[in-house]
């Protein structure tokens, strides 16, 4: 029709030129007074309404109008569902003077028939919508290269030798084929031998040149599926500190992916930072390496790496920094008797910017180490100097409350579980996301397993613990207020309910994973969540985290001191139409998840 | 200007009462209005040539943009630098334009005997009449509704002792109506239609600036 109708807004952007022309010639404009009912429940709507100017609320039918479902405003569309269903089940009322474009139902149906993607967008649930939006959006959350899989392009043909091949022959072969590793076959298994292994064997161990290479090989291969993302291979290499990953399709060997090949895909040198962390021989070296991390995150975000992968990589990096610092600060003879754990978002592997330190130390019952607290204080101080801000709740090892023997720790956990008081519940929520990062992990596992057993079938606890997830209202009626300085606290409104709800479910079903996405996957697998529901929750969480991150980074850049005082704030007017749409849908997902929790844990009333 | 036109209309009506365009002269009793706008080469009726004509029907509170007239004409010889600056229409934009005769026929069929709404609508009607009369022997017989008068009538009670600002953009912003494709005939016709619907059916505009 005219430029007043934005064809580049999803879902109309999914239409081809001819279909858009059809929309163009069939739109009408309608004017509604403030308070006028645009569509009344039970009416047959004329078609989809797209707001040119104004604000509309969708609310429960009836005179009292108490429950408002959603607000719509500029460029939003409404009435699509009602048009498809034939009749509206809610009232749509102009909250202020409103001008709408109207696309007749007849044309809508015609378009849905000719364009499957458009039809999907109108009919499908949230997870499908985000996928369509991601594919057709400006690629904000996924760059092309991030989607590259470990397929043929980067897989190298492995050099395979049989058992009995001598070191000399193997070296010769590697030189000829310019490979720097080979796979030795022993029985039905493959083992990896690298150039370094050969060197070590001959020079350091003094083995004869005719010894069998298959004896040098390492048979615990780190493998990846060819359909996996290349980025995951990089995370794997970073985490395991290796330079190649064997690609296996089921039981069949496909080839080897080398670090250098992967790196050539990524402009930012995550592994380089990883190596620097590993080689750091002093705290100063380590600090310098840690500071390179911020640039890496920025690079990843700006190239559009999917948020979950970024979190994975960052969690791996942060974990290694902390582990390395632990190595440097804790005396070697004490290391086997203590275990450093990270908790909260760090434990879940979900922090993006360097978040507050949430850490604790467990030590063997009866350990006597006089200088322990003093060492812990300096540990916390060092982390602060690395750019990990101190925890405002003082949940860190410099606080003696968080330095415990295994016995005291389990006692604390069960004490917290028995009180209904808010602070104890919060501490518990943080503690159950704990993950060991350095020292003797067995200490941690003993405590955790004891606690999970302890909670078994304690319905009263779970019901109480779950309640926090439904405490904050889902801010769905926020959207109308864009004209005012509309902001919402995305942590309260979206992130926390998901994370805490999933945490509760995971705890109840004794799922060991701490990462929310992995917990969701495990809950789906064990049948506690429906697959569709689980996927939607994951997508919703990713969306919240991503929107939050983008606004955080902008605020950090605009501030003088590089500090964002309102990290959980989403300013709605900075979102585009598509993001607002998705945000609204994601909040709907949160709402129905909360309903699920309410039923599951009898939280109603 | 208004009185001569009224007299002429009576004359035309007598002459064409039984002609092929008789229905144009019947009095209109429906609830529709046609919002009309022309882009021309000059603001002097005598020199003006029509470049494009846009029109939409208004039906109650609805602007039927799906049923609209959006005509571009063949470039007239007089297409000058001055008007190009206003409309951003160059001769090359009008290469697909149609002949004036065809345009007028489409226009008459579209408007029928409905009232014509516009912003300074008499100007548009006079320009159209200038070309219509030699071909058909009559001018547009329709009732004319002047948007700025409708606006003025509603606003003046609140504006004691002051002149009312009747500029297009001022009216649009007072009424909080988005301006749609300014300086295209169709865009202006739609904007005027929305302003009219707003004035007819909405509350009277507030006076905050």
UniProtKB/TrEMBL annotation, chain A:
Keyword list (alphabetical) reads: CBS domain
Q: Extract the InterPro entries matched here.
A: CBS_dom, CBS_dom_sf, cNMP-bd_dom, cNMP-bd_dom_sf, DUF294_put_nucleoTrafse_sb-bd, GlnD_Uridyltrans_N, MgtE_transporter, RmlC-like_jellyroll
Q: What is this protein called?
A: Cyclic nucleotide-binding protein
Q: Record's superkingdom? A: Bacteria
Q: Where is the CBS domain?
A: 217-273
Q: Name one Pfam family in it.
A: cNMP_binding
The chain positions of domain Cyclic nucleotide-binding read: 11-79
UniProtKB/TrEMBL annotation, chain B:
> Is Hydrolase one of the keywords UniProt gives this record?
yes
Exonuclease domain: residues covered: 32-205
Q: What is an example of a Pfam family matching this protein?
A: RNase_T
**What UniProt keywords apply to this chain's record, in alphabetical order?**
Exonuclease, Hydrolase, Nuclease
Q: Which SMART domains match?
A: EXOIII (SM00479)
Q: Return the InterPro entries for the record.
A: Ribonucl_H, RNaseH-like_sf, RNaseH_sf
What GO molecular-function term can you cite, just one? exonuclease activity
**Classification via NCBIfam families:** PRK09145.1
Protein name as it appears in the record: 3'-5' exonuclease
Source organism: Marinobacterium zhoushanense
């Amino acid at each position: 029709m005219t430029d007043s109708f934005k064809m580049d807004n999803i879902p109309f952007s999914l239409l081809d030129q001819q279909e858009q022309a059809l929309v163009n010639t069939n739109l009408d404009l309608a004017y509604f007074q403030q308070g006028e009912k645009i569509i009344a429940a039970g009416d047959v709507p004329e078609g989809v309404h797209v707001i040119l100017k104004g604000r509309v609320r969708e609310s429960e039918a009836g005179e009292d109008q108490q429950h408002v479902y959603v607000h719509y405003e500029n460029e939003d569309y409404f009435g699509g569902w009602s048009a498809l269903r034939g009749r509206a089940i809610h009232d749509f009322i102009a909250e202020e003077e409103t001008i709408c474009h109207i696309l007749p139902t007849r044309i809508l149906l015609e378009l849905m028939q000719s364009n499957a993607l458009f039809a999907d967008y109108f009919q499908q649930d949230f997870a499908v919508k985000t996928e369509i939006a991601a594919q057709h959006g400006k690629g904000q959350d996924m760059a092309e290269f991030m989607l590259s899989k470990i397929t043929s392009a980067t897989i190298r043909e492995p050099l395979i030798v049989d058992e009995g091949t001598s070191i000399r022959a193997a070296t010769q072969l590697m030189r000829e084929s310019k490979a720097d590793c080979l796979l030795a076959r022993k029985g039905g298994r493959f083992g990896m031998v690298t150039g370094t292994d050969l060197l070590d064997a001959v020079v350091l161990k003094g083995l004869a040149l005719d010894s069998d290479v298959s004896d040098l090989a390492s048979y615990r291969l780190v493998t990846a599926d060819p359909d996996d993302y290349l980025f995951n291979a990089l995370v794997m290499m970073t985490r395991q500190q290796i330079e190649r990953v064997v690609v296996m399709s089921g039981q069949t060997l496909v080839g080897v992916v080398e670090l250098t090949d992967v790196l050539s895909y990524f402009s930012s040198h995550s592994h380089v930072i990883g190596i620097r962390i590993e080689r750091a021989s002093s705290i100063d070296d380590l600090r310098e390496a840690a500071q390179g991390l911020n640039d890496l995150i920025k690079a990843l975000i700006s190239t559009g790496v999917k948020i979950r992968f970024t979190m994975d990589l960052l969690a791996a990096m942060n974990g290694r920094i902390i582990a390395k610092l632990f190595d440097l600060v804790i005396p070697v003879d004490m290391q086997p008797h203590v275990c450093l754990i990270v908790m909260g978002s760090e434990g879940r592997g979900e922090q993006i910017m360097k978040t507050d330190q949430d850490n604790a130390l467990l030590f063997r019952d009866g350990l006597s180490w006089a200088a322990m607290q003093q060492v812990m204080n300096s540990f916390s101080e060092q982390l602060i100097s690395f750019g990990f801000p101190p925890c405002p709740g003082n949940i860190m090892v410099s606080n003696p409350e968080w330095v415990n023997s295994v016995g005291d720790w389990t006692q604390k956990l069960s004490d917290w579980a028995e009180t209904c008081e808010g602070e104890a519940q919060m501490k518990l929520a943080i503690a159950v996301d704990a993950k060991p990062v350095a020292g003797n992990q067995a200490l941690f596992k003993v405590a955790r397993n004891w606690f999970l057993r302890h909670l078994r079938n304690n319905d009263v606890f779970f019901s109480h613990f779950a309640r926090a997830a439904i405490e904050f209202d889902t801010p769905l009626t926020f959207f109308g207020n864009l004209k005012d300085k509309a902001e919402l606290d995305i942590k309260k409104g979206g992130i926390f309910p998901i994370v805490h709800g999933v945490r509760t479910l995971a705890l109840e079903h004794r799922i060991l994973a701490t990462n929310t996405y992995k917990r969701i996957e495990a809950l789906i697998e064990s049948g506690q969540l429906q697959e569709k529901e689980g996927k939607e929750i994951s997508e919703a969480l990713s969306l919240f985290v991503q929107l939050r991150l983008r606004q955080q980074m902008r605020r950090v850049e605009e501030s003088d001191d590089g500090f964002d005082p309102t990290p959980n704030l989403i300013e709605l007017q900075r979102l585009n139409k598509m993001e607002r749409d998705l945000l609204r849908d994601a909040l709907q997902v949160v709402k129905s998840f909360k309903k699920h929790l309410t039923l599951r844990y009898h939280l109603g009333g | 200007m208004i009185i001569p036109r009224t007299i002429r209309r009576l004359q035309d009506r007598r002459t064409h009462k039984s002609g092929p365009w008789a229905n144009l002269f019947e009095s209109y009793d429906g609830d529709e209005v046609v919002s009309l706008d022309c882009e021309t080469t000059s603001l002097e009726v005598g020199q003006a040539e029509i470049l494009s004509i846009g029109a939409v029907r208004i039906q109650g509170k609805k602007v039927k943009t799906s049923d609209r007239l959006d005509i571009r004409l063949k470039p007239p010889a007089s297409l000058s630098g001055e008007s190009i600056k206003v409309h951003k229409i160059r001769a090359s934009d009008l290469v697909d334009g149609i002949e004036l005769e065809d345009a007028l026929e489409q226009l008459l069929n579209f408007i029928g005997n409905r009232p014509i709404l516009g912003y300074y609508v008499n100007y548009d009607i006079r320009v159209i009449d200038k070309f219509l009369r030699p071909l058909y022997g009559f001018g547009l017989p329709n009732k004319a509704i002047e948007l700025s008068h409708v606006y003025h009538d509603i606003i003046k009670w609140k504006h004691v002792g002051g002149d009312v600002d009747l500029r297009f953009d001022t009216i649009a912003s007072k009424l909080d109506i988005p301006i749609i494709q300014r300086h295209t005939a169709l865009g202006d016709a739609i904007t005027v239609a929305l302003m009219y619907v707003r004035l007819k059916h909405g509350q009277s505009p507030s006076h905050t600036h």
